[in-house]
């Protein structure tokens, strides 16, 4: 703007209108204080505002999440209600969303009937459609039900994470589009597994692959173990960090290839030079708070930055307070003690996938046998840094 512009005799309202219509620096600064949903509406006003909104969205790359625990006083899961309220106020444009909810109150009519007689089944087409409506078109949503949930409360990176082995709980992690980071969801069943599909998902022949979060469902079905090995074998030979486990079911994306009750694998492939990761395995003999802390502290050796870093905890349903002499929240509390500024998410499942690994730009990993990636009565504790 010309420093000699004379606004004498011009009303304050006209001056403000001139600035908001012509001075991009001022408009852009103001728009940084506007939540994303309102920002997208503002972008429709004029070309200047649209360009300013685009620039603001490009720099809003800080991870965001919404979490909730119940019981909910509303129809539907507690997380769906929290998302409906809080997603209006997020400061990023979600590109990929990872949702985890407890299977006890999301699996079907029988379990829901026990909780609340008049309650509609959470895992209904209406609930899935409601979840899809909360996020922009083109946003990849991966939604999973598990026997138990580990979450950090909404609103604070330093809030204490909680383990929920029973009761209503869930979270949604929202990943924006980030420079130098490519997050690709994948979903394989016995009809869609092939070398070309693995390559399309970025799991093979991808030198930039850094981290794979992988979740198998209906793992107890005949043929499921052999199927999972088809996915894990090429990953075991890669230099990527693999972490995850066996979950109850997947309700988004909906299964188009195989019917309900079929086994399969879903996950997120994270590629890009900015991504770093580390994981440790809390084996069966780690059964005291002191032993858990000693193992989790090994993650410090990776020396990962804390900004834009997430913690993931994938634990066996047989661990938790049952494994620690009825002491609750042992592993989540220990993680917070070691990493007080990193949020922690995860689940209690029916088997764990992972091992001790560090993935950095200057670190070469050894080959890992497929069998050493699958475990029982263990916990896989993982850090993922997104640059």
Automatic annotation (TrEMBL):
InterPro entries: F-box-like_dom_sf, F-box_dom, FIST_C. One of its GO terms (biological process) is protein polyubiquitination. Pfam families: F-box, FIST_C. Residues 224-356 form the FIST C-domain domain. PANTHER family: F-BOX ONLY PROTEIN 22. This is F-box only protein 22. It comes from Salmo salar.
């Amino acid at each position: 703007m010309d420093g000699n512009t004379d606004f004498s005799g011009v009303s304050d309202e006209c001056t403000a209108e001139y600035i908001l219509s012509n001075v991009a620096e001022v408009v852009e600064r103001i728009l940084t204080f506007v939540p994303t949903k309102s920002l997208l509406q503002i972008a429709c006003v004029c070309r200047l505002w649209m360009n300013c909104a685009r620039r603001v969205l490009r720099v809003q790359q800080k991870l965001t999440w919404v979490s909730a625990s119940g019981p909910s006083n509303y129809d539907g899961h507690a997380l769906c209600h929290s998302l409906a309220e809080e997603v209006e106020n997020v400061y990023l444009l979600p590109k990929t969303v990872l949702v985890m909810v407890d299977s006890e109150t999301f699996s079907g009519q029988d379990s829901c009937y026990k909780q609340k007689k008049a309650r509609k089944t959470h895992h209904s087409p209406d609930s899935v459609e409601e979840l899809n409506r909360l996020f922009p078109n083109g946003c990849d949503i991966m939604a999973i039900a598990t026997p138990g949930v580990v979450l950090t409360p909404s609103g604070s990176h330093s809030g204490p994470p909680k383990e929920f082995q029973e009761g209503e709980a869930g979270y949604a992690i929202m990943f924006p589009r980030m420079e130098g980071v490519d997050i690709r969801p994948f979903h394989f069943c016995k009809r869609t597994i092939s070398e070309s599909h693995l390559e399309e998902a970025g799991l093979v022949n991808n030198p930039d692959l850094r981290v794979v979060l992988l979740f198998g469902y209906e793992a107890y079905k005949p043929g499921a173990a052999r199927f999972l090995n088809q996915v894990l074998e090429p990953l075991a030979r890669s230099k990527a960090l693999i972490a995850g486990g066996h979950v109850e079911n997947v309700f988004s994306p909906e299964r188009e290839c195989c019917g309900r009750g079929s086994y399969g694998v879903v996950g997120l492939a994270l590629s890009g030079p900015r991504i770093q990761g580390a994981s440790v395995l809390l084996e069966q003999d780690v059964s005291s708070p002191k032993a858990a802390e000693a193992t989790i502290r090994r993650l410090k050796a990776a020396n990962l930055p804390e900004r834009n870093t997430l913690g993931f905890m994938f634990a066996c349903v047989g661990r938790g307070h049952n494994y620690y002499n009825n002491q609750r929240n042992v592993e989540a509390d220990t993680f917070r003690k070691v990493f007080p500024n990193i949020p922690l998410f995860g689940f209690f499942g029916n088997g764990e996938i992972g091992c001790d690994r560090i993935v950095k730009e200057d670190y070469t990993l050894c080959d890992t046998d497929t069998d050493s990636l699958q475990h029982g009565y263990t916990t896989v504790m993982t850090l993922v840094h997104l640059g």
